[in-house]
Amino acid sequence: MSSLANKRIVLGVTGSIAAYKSAELVRRLRDAGARVRVVLTDGGAKFITPLTLQSLSGQPVQQHLLDAGSEANFGHIELARWADVILIAPASANSLARLARGQADDLLTAVCLATTTTVVVAPAMNHRMWAHAATQDNVKTLLQRGVKIFGPAAGDQACGETGPGRMLETDALVTALATLFKPGTLSGTRVLITAGPTQEAIDPVRFIGNRSSGKMGFAMARAAQEAGAQVTLVSGPVALATPEGVSRIDVRSARQMHDMVLRHVVDADIFIATAAVADYRPKFAAQEKIKKSREELTLDLVRNPDILAAVAALKTGPFTVGFAAETHNLEKNAQEKLLAKSLDMIAANHVGPQQGFEQDDNALFVLWRGGRQELGLAHKDVLARALVELIAQRYRQSKQ
Ligand code: PMT
Q1: Does the beta carbon of 351 lie inside 6 Å of ligand 1?
Q2: Residues taking part in catalysis
Q3: Which pairing describes strands 190-195 and 162-166: parallel, antiparallel, or unpaired?
Q4: Level-2 CATH architecture, domain 8-178
Q5: Which CATH number is correct for 190-398, 3.80.10.10, 3.40.50.10300, 3.40.50.2300, 2.60.40.10?
Q6: pLDDT tens digits for 33-57?
Q7: β partners of residue 381
Q8: Same fold, 8-178 and 190-398
Q9: Which helix (H) or strand (E) segment is 233 a member of?
């Protein structure tokens, strides 16, 4: 039986050409045993008729916030309470903006504001609209509020252009939605994750650091938590909100991160090292601010402890996943790190001015002994979910 059986789904259909796929989506959700009630926005109604969606869902389609019939019993509140999940597919650029702003001037946005259940959006728009900073800011806001973003996929678009912005295909959407109702693949596990940069003091006001924003590590924490794990996140200095349900420990230097990881790793089943840890630190951190008195200044650096290697070397250590940040020879260097540090898995990414660090998107090349998988360019949250699924599979196999 599908995990969608008897689930109550409010399907929001907004103004995008992909609205034609919503008809098939309703059918497939009902085939999986779900009960579907459709909320159609004014924009959505320009692309698909209420009659089509009504016939397929077997329920009246609701369209208006202040409609005397549907609002007689506070329809938006009733819908918000009824839903086990709200899926907006397609979600146009405009609907993402309206959701991010917290508007409540149509039925769909009002239902989303009134609900405590999970809201999922499946974006569908031209690839330039998707890539626009305004849309990406809206996506970021929604992710931070716990909204799940499914897709978009890349490929040919209705406008004749090519790129990321297509709504996920119906099968992929139904499968992704069903995973929300399955017991998490990491249920019952404790996962320890490092994230962000470290800062190595030169004097009281200066440090050696790097460009890690923490986005990848925080996305891993969010994905592991969503997959049912109890997550502890040891983070260097970053400007990110703690993912809901995750316990966070803030550190500054590599040595502090090392100490915190070794303190907490005894309880962990899985360790994921996403942090960009400084390999070296100044041998001496000056007690007072260094004055600009000399023409040249030489800093002596000493090696920092390798946290990942230390965890992998533990006798009864956790399943250990490293990251590898590489500017060249990605696969070869990652393979060497996998073997040299005796890791269970490594996720390698290209880094450079526009890649890996700081960006919202990333691409990963995942290796383990006897296997490999490429995870193509996608939002770090999307990638993290896919990587967590891979980790869960390999972890379960290691226990058999
Ligand atoms: O934070 P973002 O802006 O989102 O960027 C994400 C990222 C690029 C930082 C991330 O995806 C990533 O690649 N993290 C690993 C960065 C890194 O330090 O790679 P490395 O190849 O130098 O180190 C290999 C592994 O050893 C990493 O898992 C690292 O956490 C670990 N390590 C390294 C040195 C050290 N002293 N201790 C460690 O544990």
Answers
A1: yes
A2: 159
A3: unpaired
A4: 3-Layer(aba) Sandwich (3.40)
A5: 3.40.50.10300
A6: 999 999 999 999 999 999 999 999 9
A7: none
A8: yes
A9: strand 230-235
Residues 374 and 364: their CA atoms lie apart, in Å, by 6
Which ligand 1 atom sits closest to the C-alpha of 274?
14
Q: Are 139 and 108 in contact (CB under 8 A)?
A: no
Containing H/E element for 324? Answer: strand 319-326
- Whole-model pTM: value is 0.69
CA dihedral 70, 71, 75, 77 (to 10 degrees): 170
Give residue limits of the domains in the chain: 8-178, 190-398
From the list 128, 155, 150, the residue with the least C-alpha distance to 139 is 150
Tokens of 2: 């599908």
pLDDT in tens, 125-173: 999 999 999 999 999 899 888 899 998 887 787 888 877 889 999 998 9
Going 303 to 306 to 310 to 313, the CA torsion angle's sign is negative
Ligand 1 nearest-atom number relative to CA 346: 28
Distance of CA 172 from the midpoint of ligand 1 (Å): 31
State if residue 356 touches ligand 1 by the CB under 6 angstroms criterion: yes
For atom 31 of ligand 1, the residue with the nearest CA is 308
CA of 349 to the centre of ligand 1 (A): 10
